Amino acid sequence: MWLIMTALAAVIATAIWYVKAPEDKYKLGLLSLLFWGATIMWLVDHVIAYITEGGEFFEINLDATLLGVAVIVFALFVWEIVLVVSDPKGVLKKSAKKVETTVS
Amino acid sequence: MACFLVPMGEAIVATAVQKVVENREKKVGEERIKKTGLSWSRRLSWLNKLLWGGTILLALEHLWHGEVVPWPPFLTAMENPANVSPMLHEMAIFGGAMAITITVVWGIMILVAELKAKAAMPKVRENPASGGA
User: Fold this and answer.
1) Beta bridge partners of B68
2) Residue A71's domain spans which residues?
3) Among A18, A44, A61, which would you mutate to test the B interface (most chain B Cβ atoms within 10 Å of its Cβ)?
4) Other Cβ atoms closer than 10 A to B67
5) Domain total of chain A
6) Nearest 5°: CA angle at A39, between A38 and A44?
7) Is B58:B4 a contact under the CB 8 Å cutoff?
8) Does A82 touch chain B (CB under 8 A)?
């Protein structure tokens, strides 16, 4: 289930990136590549496991769905950390300047 | 068990290579990059994003399934010596296949981007007034 959910997140992130391209101020290219990397790796994992061990290709249950949600939330969290650290809108710089002028 | 460690190893090497290439490109200047289209540091950044994204999210999945723990030896398979050999086998098969697939996908991405850039070049040369950025 987490493979399907991550693939869906990758497709949506790529579509949003393409709408905004060539501008990539909010690093949507990074977000879509994060999702695509995980999607490809899980796809390979599922295919090899299916060939060698058999069983169901997709694990569809509550635990797998919750893992899918956790994966998407974690990827968004990583992306937001990168976004805040790089601060493309300069929000943190502006706040820091405001604090400096208030103190002085 | 620990298949994500193989793409992680590749990601560490690729990140180091990207840093070296970036420094080299800064020294050479942007002239060569403009002639050929995409810079190698940018191409490598795509590979690194794919590899690190996959590694981080697969590490979370392994943590979820209890195959990775936040205390030594970090991999639960390492706690029992009998599990070490199957773990290494899984790393070679699954991890190796993951790393190769990601690299092949990245290669195709570069090929498509290069072909697009080459196709766009004559148009820019024919009509320099339109820019090309």
Assistant:
1) B75
2) 2-103
3) A44
4) 18
5) 1
6) 100
7) yes
8) no
Q: Nearest-CA distance from B9 to chain A in Å?
A: 14
Q: Do B50 and A37 touch (CB under 8 A)?
A: yes
Task: Quote the number of domains for chain B.
Answer: 1
| Burial (Cβ within 10 Å: 0-12, 13-18, ≥19) of residue B55 | buried
Give the residue-averaged pLDDT of A39-62: 91
DSSP-derived secondary structure letter, B93 = I
Range of the domain at B81: 5-130
Q: How many cross-chain Cβ pairs, A to B, lie less than 8 Å apart?
A: 74
Q: Nearest-CA neighbor of A42 among B3, B121, B71? A: B3
Mutate to test the interface with A, among B3, B60, B62 (most CBs of A within 10 A): B60
pLDDT tens, position by position, B57-112: 999 999 999 998 888 888 888 888 888 888 899 899 999 999 999 999 999 999 99
- Enter the tokens of residue A22: 């060539």
Q: Which of B3, B61, B94 sits opposite A71 (nearest CB)?
A: B61
Comparing CB atoms, the residue among A44, A52, A75 nearest residue B57 is A75
How far, in Å, CA of A17 to CA of A30, rounded? Answer: 9
Q: Residue B132's pLDDT is what?
A: 44
